[in-house]
Amino acid sequence: MNENMQKSYSHIVNLEFESAKKLLANEQSKNPTNGFIPLHQNYIDFLTIIIGEEKIYFDNAIQQKEVRMELLQSKNEDSPYYLYSQAEIHLQWAFSRLKFDQYSTAAYEFIKAYNLLEENQKIFPEFTLNKKGLGLIHALLGAVPEQFNWIINLAGLDGDVALGLSELDEVLSDKNFNMYENEVLFLLSFLQINLNENDAISQQYLNRIGDGYKENILLNFTAARLSNNLGENELTLKILEDKPSSLSAFPFYYLNYLQAMSYLYQLNYENAKQQFEVFLGDFKGLNYIKSAYHKLAWVAFLQKNYEKKNEYFAKVISEGNTSIDEDKVAMKDAEDIYFSSPVLLKARLLYDGGYYENALNQIIAFEQIDNVEYWYRLARVKSKLEYKNNEIIAHYQKSYDLGKESTAYYAPMSALQIALIYEKQNELDKAAIYFEKCLLISDFDYERGIHKKAKSGLGRISD
User: Fold this and answer.
1) What distance in Å separates the CA atoms of residue 378 and residue 344, rounded to the nearest whole number?
2) pTM, rounded to two decimals
3) pLDDT of 32-51, one tens digit each?
């Protein structure tokens, strides 16, 4: 890991792939046997696939996997990087395959990566960097839904969200691996947002990023997601407006989607529409296409432009893909021509942006109190405004009772939120009951994400 390779890695995590490739070519001519070359080449393919989501690139790049594995297997077996680098490549391709629904091969690669890292851990217990991959795998496996646990047991894998997060924290704290700080912060933040919902820790990671989001595009994405998760929409917009403007960087169009969402949370319809259109015009990947048209339909609906709303719903049906929850929900709503009431839709958007008082004012104006969404939104907003827990739980309970037979997410999400309140109050038996209630409901919108959080919660309280 000489200066050449450190610089190439730095360019890679800032998506400056052409600059990285020049350094790798330079290294290839000077030190052709350097094992970091194939690893860094794989990083470029991995990030290009994950961010760009282009199937043609994926199909061409996958052919390089075996070549790189053979190169790595010919290196020095006494190095802690020998098994680590092979595991990294398996792991990167597993995530890449998930983008294209190649689940069985991805599962095989996850298992292969896990076994290599476990073996490496035994041989080199002091090699902290090993815990970057192990931590990620432990955390993700710890949130696998109950019905798939037999696969994990059969493969001899261990899942534990808390363990995974602590392993990644170890890497972040090890000064010997400072160069990986941005990547590890990105991974920790991703897991924190998707599995843990701990505002104090999210704030801690956001503080650690500091102004780094102005220099590194992955940290810009990470800081934007963290600040949005914390309900600080004005900060999210500032972060996205201050993103690095390197013309040589690989384009990260999803940031335009995030910016559009932030404008939508302000009810700034025109700016939101403009950013969604930029995203749809430039992005050639698979995901969030249906979701973007869905949000444009919301804008048209809130502006009472019903003809345009129908045009956007037709686009939701005809364009894009349904691999992720946001796109599945968009498709379902478009097929059912479903809309919440304009009052509750505005309340939802204001809540998601952290404008809680404004959201409450919207909800109070709503009069159909037998509505499952009404009770759910009221509970969500009151929890952020720190109303008493018994009042918030009563509202969530009402939403749960009204909605547990429907395919909307309000009932399982209400059960999850009640469980989280009881967990904070250290009433762990009650928390477990409501985590289980959440997991017992199936076939609803955003099921994977909500079930992951419930599974993660059960894991925490049983430790």
Assistant:
1) 10
2) 0.85
3) 999 999 999 999 999 999 99
Two tokens, residue 141? 């496996």
Residue 128 corresponds to which amino acid? T
253-339 has CATH 1.25.40 classification = yes
pLDDT score at 164 = 87
Q: Any idea what DSSP says for residue 194?
A: I
* Residue 36 host element (H or E): helix 36-52
pLDDT at 324: 86
pLDDT at 61: 95
Helix, strand, coil shares of the chain, percent, nearest 5, are 75, 0, 25
- What sign results for the dihedral spanned by CA atoms 47, 50, 52, 55? positive
pLDDT at residue number 331: 95
Report d(CA 285, CA 52) in Å as an integer: 6
Q: What angle do CA 17, 207, 244 make, to 5 degrees?
A: 30
Structural fold of domain 358-463: 1.25.40
Cβ atoms 138, 158 nearer than 8 A: yes
The answer to whether the Cα torsion of 145, 397, 370, 351 is positive or negative is negative
- Count CA within 13 A, CB hemisphere, residue 209: 30
Inter-residue contact 400 to 438 (CB < 8 Å): no
How many helical (H) and strand (E) elements, i.e. helices and strands, does the chain have?
26, 0
Q: Report pLDDT digits (tens) over 260-307.
A: 999 999 999 999 999 999 999 999 998 999 999 999 999 999 999 999
CATH architecture of 3-187: Alpha Horseshoe (1.25)
Which one, of 440, 436, 442, lies nearest residue 459 by Cα?
436
| Whole-number Å distance between alpha carbons of 270 and 264 | 9
What pLDDT was estimated at residue 323?
Answer: 86
Helices (H), 210-324: 217-229, 233-241, 254-265, 269-282, 289-302, 306-318
Q: How far apart are CA 319 and CA 314, in angstroms?
A: 9
Domain ranges of the chain: 3-187, 197-247, 253-339, 358-463
Nearest to 385 by CA among 415, 357, 351, 420: 357
